Each structure stands twice: as structure tokens, then as C-alpha cells.
Amino acid sequence: MSRPIRIVFVCLGNICRSPLAEGICRALAESRGVGHRVVVDSAGTSGEHEGEAPNPSSIRVAAAHGIDIRAQRSRRLRVADLQSFDVVVAMDRSNLRNIERLGPVPADRLVLMRDFEPDASNQEVPDPWSYGPAAFQEVYEILARAMPAFLDYALKMGPRHD
Ligand code: 4NP
Prior knowledge:
Blueprint lengths: L4 E7 L5 H15 L6 E7 L11 H8 L17 H4 L2 E4 L2 H10 L7 E3 L20 H25 L5
Parallel strand pairs: 1-2, 1-3, 3-4
Helix pairs in contact: 1-5, 2-5
The structure holds 4-nitrophenyl phosphate (4NP).
4-nitrophenyl phosphate (4NP) binds next to loops.
């Protein structure tokens, strides 16, 4: 059998959106019985919150859905990640531009999260930082709606061969 598919979710600070995405993706893969086929990580394009745990509101909304993200720690996305991950997932267009500035990624392996949400009202997962719990709840709901189709895509893409 081929090696697991390596997925990294990317936002700006890696304390609000991408830690939630990481937790939701892993939980979904496990619930589908394909946990062993994926390696899930997250990172931020800014190193500003390096080493920090996720935002308390992200921890709370994840916990409300039975997902524990407390052990995650923020880290900055590195150039080497663009080679070592099979799929890089940006939360918004600004993240996407920052990733592209860091280095080349094959077009079908750099994706926008909300492109996988059925009937998305918008293409970006909004930055909830400095907003209240309702903003984090909205982020959770967007991610939960988008994740099934994203996971299908990642499993279909499989490991890269370059
Ligand atoms: P995230 O949210 O990118 O979803 O982790 C943010 C976290 C920190 C900042 C902005 C957004 N910040 O400006 O420090």
C-alpha cells in the first residue's frame, strides 16, 4: 500500500482557523475508517504566534463537537513543507498568495478550503481573530461543510510523485 497522504491546512496565525481544520479533518478521516491513510498538520504564514496553543474559542468550538485540539502548537509554514506535503490548503486568498510567494506548489496540490463547500456564499474562510465566539462557530460550520468533499479530493489525489 502507498504511504499516507500528507495534508497541511494553512492560515495566517495557525491559532484560529487551521488548527480547527486540522482537528476536523483528522476526526472525519477517523470516523470514515481512513485515519491511517492521512497525515494531517497545520501551519501559519506568519510566525507571530509560534509555539502558542490554539485560541480558546477554537478549542471551545472544537470541544463542543467532541474534537480535542488543545495539544496543537502554532508553527510557521516552511519552504520545505511545500515539497513534503501532498496537499496544501489555504483558508483565504491572502493565505494563498503568501504560500505562492514562499515557493512553487503544483496547481492541483494548492487549494482553497471553501472551493470544497457545497453552495459556498464566499470563497474565503473568514478570519475570526479579534471577533467573538459566534465568528468561531461560523468558521467551524464552514469547515465542517467543506471537509467531506475536501477529504474525498485529497484521498483521490494521493501522494505526489515529484
Ligand atoms: P488565524 O487567525 O489566521 O485563523 O490563526 C489569526 C490569528 C492571528 C492574527 C490574525 C489572524 N494576528 O494578526 O496576529
